[in-house]
Amino acid sequence: MTGRGSPSRFLTAVLHNGVGRYVRQLQRLQLLFSPTAADARGARQFVEEAAQDFARQHPDVVLYVSPHSGPGPAPVLRAEYLNGTVRDELIASKTSEEIMQLATKLANQSGLDIIRIRKPFHTDNPSVQGQWHPLTNKPSILTVQGPRLQPQ
Q1: What strand order describes the sheet that includes 26-33?
Q2: Most C-beta atoms within 10 A of its C-beta, which of 36, 47, 50, 85?
Q3: 91 exposed, middle or buried (CB, 10 Å; 0-12, 13-18, 19+)?
Q4: Residues 51-99: tens digit of each pLDDT
């Protein structure tokens, strides 16, 4: 996709995060798996071994473990963010370590789609005078280039 066709936005902080205390954007993490399915072995190992470690490392994230009976759908890690975004990640045939890495990645994201940033800086109150640069307050003789004088 070209630069004009891809969505873009200015760089902003989610909910002005960082102005006060830091608020993690991941609200809830739900692990849906079948207790008997073969492709959910990594999910079962994650629950037995790493779920408590993840809960200790991220005390502000609620972790739900929901085993469903029977050969249901593939195991899923569902992340719900404060802005209402719900992201489902398929964890079929993944190991416990891979699921832990995925859960940590989801915990560190904001819930917004990954898109192109227009500029690395942005302000809501632009300056009337313009941006500062090194020659702003220097004499104009340094910035104006006239014809060079030849020695006679």
Answers
A1: 62-67, 26-33, 76-81, 86-90
A2: 47
A3: buried
A4: 999 999 999 999 999 998 766 789 999 999 998 999 999 999 999 999 9
Q: Enumerate residues 6+ apart whose C-beta is below 8 A from 90.
A: 74, 75, 76
- Say if CB 106 and CB 89 are below 8 A apart: yes
Q: How far apart are CA 89 and CA 31, in angstroms?
A: 10
CA distances from 64 to 28, 52, 58, 73, 77 (A): 8, 11, 13, 17, 10
Confidence of residue 150 (pLDDT cuts 50, 70, 90): low
Pairing between strand 86-90 and 76-81?
antiparallel
Q: Does the pTM of the predicted model rise above 0.70? A: yes
Q: Would you mind telling me the total number of residues written for the chain in this entry?
A: 152
* Reported CATH class of domain 22-116: alpha beta
